UniProtKB/TrEMBL annotation:
Domain NADP-dependent oxidoreductase: 11-79
Pfam entry (one): Aldo_ket_red
Organism annotation: Ktedonobacter robiniae
InterPro entries assigned: NAD(P)_OxRdtase_dom_sf, NADP_OxRdtase_dom
Family matches, as SUPFAM superfamilies: NAD(P)-linked oxidoreductase
Protein name in the entry: NADP-dependent oxidoreductase domain-containing protein
């Protein structure tokens, strides 16, 4: 299910575009992702997925990351233009 939903060229291209903006600024993708999610209206918490303590610790740093206008805009643009599979079975999982 995960590969069907996310392992597609447009997803990889979106990650590359975001990385090209944030990594030169010293920010990691996981930090930016969490910071962006937490900045969304109505969001009071985010669910983190990690299989190792190091991944969890790295993700948590995003709670202290501030995104500037350009970073927020690229995150928004990528999210809202991402192709989505319209499969009701996937949506129920």
């Amino acid at each position: 299910m995960y590969q069907k939903r996310y392992w597609r060229d447009p997803m990889f291209e979106a990650v590359d575009r975001l990385a090209n903006v944030v990594e030169p600024r010293g920010k990691k993708l996981v930090e930016v992702a969490l910071a962006w999610v937490l900045a969304q209206p109505g969001i009071t918490c985010a669910i983190l997925g990690a299989s190792k303590l190091e991944q969890f610790t790295e993700s948590l740093r995003g709670a202290n990351v501030s995104l500037d206008e350009e970073e927020r805009k690229i995150c928004d643009d990528l999210w809202y233009t991402m192709p989505r599979e319209r499969d009701p079975l996937l949506a129920r999982r």
